[in-house]
Amino acid sequence: MRSWLSFSRRSSPLRFLSLQPHIFLRDRLSSRYASHAAAASKLPISPEPAVEQHADEVAASFMEVMDLIKQDHNVNQSAWLRQRLRGNDLQIPSRSKVGENVIRFLFERRSYEQAGAVYQQMIEDGLLPSPSTDALFLAVALAVSKTSNEEQLEGFEAILSYRSFTEVHLMELLKHIDTLEISPRIAARLTRLFISVKAEGYWPSPNLVTKLIELHTRAGEIDMAARTIVEFEYQGGSRPTFENRTQPYAQILRTAPGTRSDQEAVDRIMGIMQEKDVPIHIAVFNSLIAREKLFRGLRKAFAFYSVIMRLAMTTPLKPDANTYQNLFRLLGFQYKNKYRQNASRRDQDKGIVVPPRLLFADMMSLCFSERFHPPRSDIPSVAQRQLETDRSLLLIAFRTFLYVDDYPAAIIALSTTIDLGLGVNERTYFVLLRYMARKVYFDIYIARLKKKNAPRFALELMGPFDHMTLDPNPHKAYRWIMERLIEHNSVRRTAVATVIASQSGRIPTVDEILNQHNHVSGDQLDEFPLINILRRGMRAQIALRHSEKDQPKGNDERKRAVRKVKYQMIPKDVPLWTWKGKHETTRQRSYRKNH
C-alpha cells in the first residue's frame, strides 16, 4: 500500500508544507546527520520477506548506525558507511526501515527539523514510509509549522480522507501530538475533522469517542465534551457506543482541569448525569477521588469512600482496585514525613479518614477475598494483567506504609504479597531501597551536622562503616547505600537458612533495580533481604525510642508489634484469593460460568 502522505505531497493538498519547505530545510542537516541521510538513501533494497526473517540483523545494524550518529563530528561517517557496505558486513534488509528508524531516533532526541529533512529525503528518493511514520511526521509538521491552525487543518483534510488512514494511525498521531505538547483543542478539531471526512457509514469506535471526550475536557470545553457523549451515544443510531453508560462521564471527571475553580464544571457534569438518569457506578466515584488527589483533599476523598461503603451494604456497588490505589496514594503523600523530624501534617484533624491499616483490611475483604476476587482468566495475557493489577495495588499499599514509617504494617503488606503467590520483583526492591537509602542518607547528614551523634539508624541497617567518608553527592551516595543494604541484609546466619535461600530465587543487582522502569525480569527473586531490612528498621526505631539499645527486648517488642498489626490488617474468617496453583473453588467456577 502506498503512503497516503506521498500521494498528498504529489497532489499538494498539504500546503503548509509545500509553501514553507524552509521550515524543515532552513538549517539543512548538520554535517553529523547529512552524511548519514545520504548514505541511508543509497542502501540496497532487499525483498520484503527478508525484513521479517532477519529482524535481529535489522536491529543490530540499526544500532551500529545509531552509534555512528553519536560519534564525534570529526569522524568521516560517509566513508565509514561506504566501507562497511562494500564489505557486506552491515546487513540492512530495507532502506525504508533504516530511514524510519532514524526519524524515530531523531524524534526522541527532539531534533524535529532534522527528522523532517530525513523524511523529505526519503520521499524524494521514492521510498514509501509506513503510515505510522507518516503519523509521526504529521505531528512534527504540526509542531514546527508557523502557519495558522485553519491552514494546517485544511492541509490535513485530504490526508485524513484516505482509506489507508485508519483510526489506528489517528490514535498514533494524537499520541505524538500529546508528546509534543500541542494544544488539546487543536487535537480535538483534528479528530472531528477525521470523523467528518470519512465515507458514509463510518462510525467512530468507543476508544476514539472516549479520546475525543478527553481532548475536549482537557481543553476546558466541558459543555462540548458533554454534547459529544450525546452525539455519539449510539453507533449507527441503534447500538449503544458504550456498554457502561457511566464510562464517558467518568472520563470527563477524570480529565477535567485540576483547579478548585473548575468544581463548577464537575457539578455541571454530575447534574447532566442526574438529568439523564445515568446509573451510579464505581468508575464515577474513582474519578472524583482521583481529582481530590490533585488538591490533597484527603478528607473529601474519604467522604466519597464513606458513601461507597454505605452503598456497598445495600447495592452491588463495591470499591475496586482503582479506589484503593487512589486512597493509598493520597494517604502516603499526605503523611509522608519527607525524611525530617516533622509530624505537623500528621497532627491535623483527620476527620473521617480511614487509617492505612484499617484501609488495608477493607481492601483485603473486598478485593482479595475468594468471594469478590474474579477467577483467574483462561487467557494467559488477561491472567497476567490480573496478576499485575493485584501486585501493583499491594505495592502501592506497601509504599504508603513506608511513607508513614509504619514498618510493622509494611512487613505485613509484603508478607501478604508473598503469601498470595505474587512474589516480589525489581520494582518491590526499588521502592524499599530508594526509601531506605534516603532515610540512611539523612541520618548520616544529621550525624555529621551535630558532630557528636553516630548515625544509629544507618549503622543498624548497614552494619559498621565510616560514615564520614560517604560521598556528599546524593546520587552517588544512594547507589552505594543500596549496594550496602543488599549486601548486609542478604546474609543468612544459619546453615538451614542458607539451604532455604538456594530455593528462594536470586537477589537482583542494583543496576537491575534501577532499570526497573524499563525492564522487569520475571525471575523468582528472594524476598529475604527486604524482610530483613524492615526488621532492622523496626529494631532501630525501638532502640531510638528507648535511647539505650536492648537487643532481646527490642526483638520481643518487634514480634509483638507485628502480631498486633497482622490482627488489624488481615481480616479473620475471610478466605483470601491466592495465585498459588490452579485450584478454583466452587464459588469461583460458578462466577466463571455466569460471567
Key features of this structure:
single chain; 595 residues; mainly alpha; 2 domains; two-stranded antiparallel sheet; 2 strands; disordered N terminus; disordered C terminus
Cα gyration radius (Å): 29 Å
Q: How many helical elements? A: 31
Number of domains: 2
Give the % helix.
55-70%
The global form is globular
**How many beta-strand runs?**
2
Q: What share of residues are in beta strands?
A: under 5%
Describe the largest sheet. Answer: 2 strands, antiparallel
Structural class: mainly alpha
Mean pLDDT: 75
- Strand order in the sheet with the most strands: 1-2
Compile the SSE list and pairings.
Elements: H1 4-11, H2 15-18, H3 22-25, H4 31-41, H5 48-53, H6 55-70, H7 77-86, H8 95-108, H9 112-124, H10 131-144, H11 149-160, H12 167-179, H13 184-197, H14 206-218, H15 222-231, E1 234-235, E2 239-240, H16 247-255, H17 263-275, H18 282-295, H19 298-312, H20 321-335, H21 356-367, H22 380-403, H23 407-419, H24 426-450, H25 456-462, H26 474-489, H27 495-501, H28 510-514, H29 528-546, H30 551-569, H31 586-594
Antiparallel strand pairs: 1-2
Helix pairs in contact: 4-7, 4-9, 8-9, 8-10, 9-10, 10-12, 11-13, 12-13, 13-14, 14-15, 14-16, 16-18, 18-19, 18-20, 19-20, 20-21, 20-22, 22-23, 22-24, 23-29, 23-30, 24-25, 24-26, 25-29, 29-30
